[in-house]
Amino acid sequence: MAQREIKADRTLVAYCGLYCGACGSHLKGKCPGCHENSKASWCKIRVCCAEHSYQSCADCKQYPDVKECTHFNGLMPALMALLFNSNRPADVRKIRELGLDGYATFMAERKLQSLPRRGTVA
């Protein structure tokens, strides 16, 4: 199976800020992305955002700083951040700065699933 091209698509911005459009599983056709992945019911971030009709944590007004949210900072999100070397709080800040379309374009152009925990991305 041929790997798909990384394209900017706002529907592939995960609730937590990861960009599914640059994920290997999505690109290989093995995962539909966070919003369409019914198997990800274990994810408290996904459940919370769906319950509040948020497109991502960037829409949350209760926690202007996602670091204060217990769903965002639980054990599983910490493991995912380690696994993907991701800086999801920076991802959420970038979504707030650029909007979903701008963020999807930003990430697709750089072929990034997440902003890195260390270093900068121009």
Please summarize what this structure is:
With 122 residues, this protein is mainly α. The chain has helices at residues 24-27, 44-51, 75-84, 88-110.
Describe this structure in words.
This protein is mainly α and 122 residues long. The protein has one domain (10-110). The protein has helices at residues 24-27, 44-51, 75-84, 88-110. 37% of the residues lie in helices and 0% in strands.
**Cα-based radius of gyration, to the nearest Å:** 13 Å
Strand elements, count: 0
- Between the first and last Cα atoms, what is the distance in angstroms? 32 Å
Q: Give the SSE order as H and E letters.
A: HHHH
Query: Tell me about the biggest sheet?
Result: none
Could you tell me the strand content as a percent range? under 5%
SSE class: mainly alpha
Q: Count of helices?
A: 4
Shape: globular
Q: How helical, in percent, are the residues? A: 25-40%
List low-confidence stretches. none
Residue-averaged pLDDT, rounded? Answer: 89
Number of domains: 1
